[in-house]
Amino acid sequence: MGNRTDAAFSDAEIRALSDIAGTMIPADAALKVPGADDPAIMADIVKSIGRDLADVRAAVAAIGVKSGGQFAAMDIDSREKLLTEDVASGGAASTLAR
Q1: Predicted confidence (pLDDT) per residue in 72-93, tens digit
Q2: At how many degrees (to 10) do helices 11-24 and 76-88 cross?
Q3: Can you spell out the DSSP letters for 11-52?
Q4: DSSP string covering 81-95, please?
Q5: What does each C-alpha distance from 47 to 27, 37, 39, 75, 97 come to in angstroms?
Q6: Cβ(83)–Cβ(23) under 8 Å?
Q7: Using CA atoms, how far apart are residues 60 and 54, in angstroms rounded to an integer?
Q8: How far apart are CA 81 and CA 84, in angstroms?
Q9: CB 62 within 8 A of CB 56
Q10: Quick one: pLDDT at residue 7?
Q11: 51: which residues sit within 8 A by CB, 6+ positions away?
């Protein structure tokens, strides 16, 4: 695919992916490291998706469905539970955890 895979994602998909990534890899203030939802990190993730674009898009959509379209509004414990259970069952989130 070229280097412009970010053009293939809508703003809503990027926000959703950022919410998911930030839940999976949160910032750690004690260690002074950003989470995966840091804008620079997220830009690199989106730029680097390449051949996994369709799988990542499907995973983001599936997580949105599982959360009733409310993933961003869920509390952190509920987000983590949804993602952990989904990864453990081989669901869509497992695409993002590899």
Answers
A1: 999 999 999 999 999 999 998 9
A2: 90
A3: HHHHHHHHHHHHHHS--BTTTTB--TTSHHHHHHHHHH-GGG
A4: HHHHHHHHTT-THHH
A5: 21, 14, 12, 28, 17
A6: yes
A7: 10
A8: 5
A9: no
A10: 53
A11: 1
